[in-house]
Amino acid sequence: MRFLGELAVPLILGGIFTYAIFKKTDVFSAMTKGAKDGLRVIWGIIPALITLLPCIYMLRESGALDVLCRMISPLSSLLGIPSETVPLMLMRPLSGSGALALAGDIIKTSGADSFTGRCAAVMLGSTETTFYVIAVYFGAAGIKNSRHAIPAALIADFTGFVAAVFFTRLFFGF
Questions:
Q1: Of 49, 79, 44, 68, residue with least CA distance to 164
Q2: Where are the domains of the chain?
Q3: Which residues have CB under 8 Å from 83's CB, separation 6+?
Q4: What is the pTM of this model?
């Protein structure tokens, strides 16, 4: 079985090249065209990334994240969400790496098997880096007006956070 796993990628690539030969496709031209298209996408994404990443850094370093956490903590307590996960909830829609670092801190502080640690892990898996995804994909597609996409995505993230707490309680018996 392990042998088959090691051959999976070469077999898939061989199959693609065999199919291209039977279809009389110029494989090199197709690959270079794909590379050009990829570079065009990257060129369209770069401005969004250059804008988004420093803004995330400034939010974290300015202390605004801490102020927002203190404002949201009463609502999170009402919903049964651990207060330690509030910074994660605020960072996750902005930055995957920032949210991962916060979750690592939460797990290190609270413990991997604690309710808070498990909530943090489930929250990471249940939500998306909304602003990053919208900036990258909308930028690549040339969409200028996000209209309802951002509010809908943020509502989905909030739902994911609340559901993460609910299912952590349900499945792990907290």
A1: 79
A2: 37-172
A3: 69, 73, 76, 77
A4: 0.68
- pLDDT, one tens digit for every residue, the chain (174 residues): 567 778 888 889 889 888 888 888 887 888 899 889 888 878 877 877 777 778 777 877 888 888 888 898 898 989 899 999 999 999 899 888 888 888 998 999 999 999 999 999 999 999 999 988 888 888 778 888 888 999 999 999 999 999 999 999 999 887
